[in-house]
Amino acid sequence: DTEVTQTPKHLVMGMTNKKSLKCEQHMGHRAMYWYKQKAKKPPELMFVYSYEKLSINESVPSRFSPECPNSSLLNLHLHALQPEDSALYLCASSQVGGNSYNEQFFGPGTRLTVL
Amino acid sequence: QKEVEQNSGPLSVPEGAIASLNCTYSDRVSQSFFWYRQYSGKSPELIMSIYSNGDKEDGRFTAQLNKASQYVSLLIRDSQPSDSATYLCAVKKGGSEKLVFGKGMKLTVNP
Questions:
Q1: Which residue, among B13, B52, B37, B18, has the nearest Cα to B90 in the 3D structure?
Q2: Disulfide: which of A16, A77, B56, B75 matches B62 by Cβ 3.0-4.6 Å?
Q3: Closest alpha carbon within chain B to A109
């Protein structure tokens, strides 16, 4: 059983809608990640939060807006998306620093369709 | 040269055989290496991590790392139909949270 949860599992939205994806981890990790994955492609990093601060933004369009309310929660706010944004959106978490090699564990993902 | 390269496959093996998946990486400062398994329509699942040269075994899975050759592999012994999935190699540099993925190899184990 995954200890990273994501809601919703599926989301269909129009190009003018505003929606949010939610992620929660229960492992005490201090880094959280958003990835986008298109069919038959590897996950593509979008954002990294470390200790609730945005540490990496991979030049993601502003129609994607991340938010980290606390160390266990990560949101991705969506606005004015395009059909090409349809993909599987994955959240992951990991430890930071220390002697751990900080393995990343993925949630089950949100399947997003933009009409 | 891509940072992480995997043979795109697909790879097909009979049940009970050894499946061998390979990955090379370009950045010598890479320190941590991971194999993820991804079933169709599901999210990636971490199955092996390796950080030191040599072999690391976990059940039917063996990860091999050769930092001099910048090469990491995954062997699956006694392959089962349930091993049929896409396997993703991922590499992380020390001090960075960023994982760089290979493009994945689709494995099919035929009963």
A1: B37
A2: B75
A3: B43
